[in-house]
Amino acid sequence: MDLFVDLDLYRSKGSRVFAGRERGAEVRRLSGIDEAERSGRRIVIHIPEDVLSVNSSFWLGLVGDSVRRLREQRFRDLFRLDSPTHQDVYESGIAKALRFSNPLAPDSRGGTGRRG
Amino acid sequence: MIWLLAFVLASGPHQEADTVQPRITSPPLTTAQVESLVDRRSASMASRAIDSVRGDQKERYSTSWLADQGLALVALLLSLAGLWFQFRERSEDKYHAQVGSPCSEALTKLRNDLSTHVEELKHAMEDVAQARDPMMLMERFRDVRKSFSDCMDACSSSMLAWGQVERAQRLEKEIQDLEDEFTRALDEASKKGFTDGSSPLRVLVRTEVGILINSVQSDPCARKRAIRQSASSQTGRAPLPESPTLGGQSEQPEGS
Q1: What is this model's ipTM?
Q2: CA-CA distance, B197 to B220, in Å (whole number)?
Q3: CA distance B249 to chain A (A)
Q4: What is the mean pLDDT of residues B12-16?
Q5: Which range scores top for mean pLDDT: A8-12, A61-65, B160-164?
Q6: What pTM was computed for the model?
Q7: Taking the C-alpha atoms of B39, B42, B45 and B46 in order, what is their torsion angle to the nearest 10 degrees?
């Protein structure tokens, strides 16, 4: 069963932007993304329609670890962003997360994008 | 009889000498033999003289060879030192060409883009207020994200190509922080309808991006060297050694 992460549950009152790496990491922890990822469940992230911006810092805090661990293809297989308006964050987030990651680092050996 | 005795006495030794002498001495030498002997003797003497001269030359040559090698070594070291100093001087120019200049251009473009986006958002807000397409506001925010993203990509790729991994990460984080601050301020300003919100945004963009531009202008290694040299000239102490960091580049916290 897919994990549905509705960001509407985690936003500050009246705010229409999601910003900050720490905030993203907190939402990741609260929503149980790590557990779902470990069990191989698909994760759907929903962004409310009135949200003006999901910044790269927030997005990397939310899924950066997963991109680095799973690598690009496996991440694409597992994670889906349920918002056509913010697809640019999804795409650029992959490149940004992998930019400084070392493929030989222990936390990056979890997947090569060819599994499953 | 006396004559015979005298003859014998007189001629005996002479006769004996005549008969014995050829047995003791070599047979008479011919002219050719004498010449050959002289040649051999002179050749031997000449050979010894040549050997003597050669030995002398060898000794002189080995001393001269060592001196030549020493001079060559000194010249090589001097050349290497010259090249090193030249490299250090040029590395600052290369840094400016490969990192400082592209990053400054990217940040300057970001600053100009953000100023434009603020104006565009003002118009978008007016359109939203007039109940036109609310998607316009989101599109403006997407433009803002794209401007920040392009700037991050340009700066990071330049710095990574220069081997400054830590610095690239730090600059990217600073740009992200600015993006967060700008976006939050934009959100607040848009709620207020941009009546007084746009002015602080312009100040934010001008000052914060200006600080980032200053921080990427020069090679931190060169700045660190300059600081060390300045400190050593004031204290009279030898310059401190450089601390090794990622990619062989020294890192220094930015002044922002």
Answers
A1: 0.84
A2: 36
A3: 16
A4: 48
A5: A61-65
A6: 0.63
A7: -90
- Alpha helices by DSSP H, listed for chain B, are 2-24, 31-95, 101-129, 135-161, 165-191, 198-217, 220-235
> Which residues, in sequence order, are CB contacts of B137 under 8 Å at separation 6+?
A52, B121, B124, B125, B128, B190
- End-to-end CA gap in chain A: 16
- List residues in chain B touching A: CB distance below 8 A: 135, 137-138, 141-142, 144-146, 148-149, 152-153, 156, 160, 165, 168-169, 172, 176-177, 179-180, 183-184, 186-187, 190-191
> What confidence tens digit (pLDDT) does each residue in B226-248 have?
555 555 555 554 444 433 333 33
**Short-list B219, B233, B247, B245, CA closest to B87:** B219
C-alpha B153/C-alpha B102 separation (Å) is: 11
How far, in Å, CA of B96 to CA of B73, rounded? Answer: 35
| Tens-digit pLDDT profile for residues B19-59 | 445 455 566 777 777 777 777 877 788 788 778 777 767 77
